[in-house]
Each structure stands twice: as C-alpha cells, then as structure tokens.
Specification:
Length: about 120
C-alpha cells in the first residue's frame, strides 16, 4: 500500500546558514527498512524540486531507525538573507511528511494517524 511518510515517521529539523538538517525517525522498527530503501538522498532532493539547489547527504543511524538528511542550498541563501521566510528548516521537515512510500499491507496495523 502507498502511504504518506507522516503515517510511518516523524521529523526533527534544524538550519544553519543555507543548510537544512532533517532527521526522519520511524515510529516502529518494522517501517525502517522501507523508509531506508525508498527515501534516498536523491529522492529527498527530487521531492524538493527546485527548492534544494545543492547536494543532499543522507546518514543512516540504523540502531535508532533514523535517517538524517543534510541539504545544502536549501534555505534561499540563509534564513537572514532570504525574503522567503517559509524556507526555515522546520518548514522543509514538515513538507517531507507528504512523501509517499510503499509498505506491505501486513504493517497497516502499525500506521499512525488517518489516511490523507
């Protein structure tokens, strides 16, 4: 089944200059392999088509079921230099929760929140 990321994970974020840092944390270890396989650095950057202009690095913390993304060129030059105030790291972390991924039907009982 196809579900939005918000049903299998939550995010935390930060920003420094023109770089955004987003951690994606699986709600349940059973979701992590699907998250890790589908939410690649390339998929993360493509999801923000035109917003993230630099490289994206992904760091997997398997023991915690966390993926950490460092996106360069993600904040319109930096929070204090951009007129687009919505480009803070928190806004980017919130938007990625719309990313869709495929999980087995057998994991439906572990999903959080209503279908969107």
């Amino acid at each position: 089944m196809i579900v939005s990321l918000r049903r299998v994970a939550h995010t935390r974020s930060g920003d420094k200059g023109n770089t955004s840092n987003t951690a994606v944390i699986a709600y349940d270890p059973a979701f992590y392999p699907y998250l890790k396989a589908q939410l690649t650095a390339q998929a993360f950057k493509a999801f923000y088509d035109g917003v993230v202009t630099g490289d994206v690095a992904r760091y997997a913390v398997d023991s915690l079921q966390v993926l950490n993304f460092v996106a360069h060129g993600a904040l319109g030059g930096g929070v204090s230099r951009s007129l687009a105030l919505d480009n803070y790291g928190k806004a980017l972390a919130s938007v990625v929760l719309r990313f869709e991924l495929e999980i087995p039907d057998a994991l439906a009982g572990l999903l959080r929140g209503p279908p969107a």
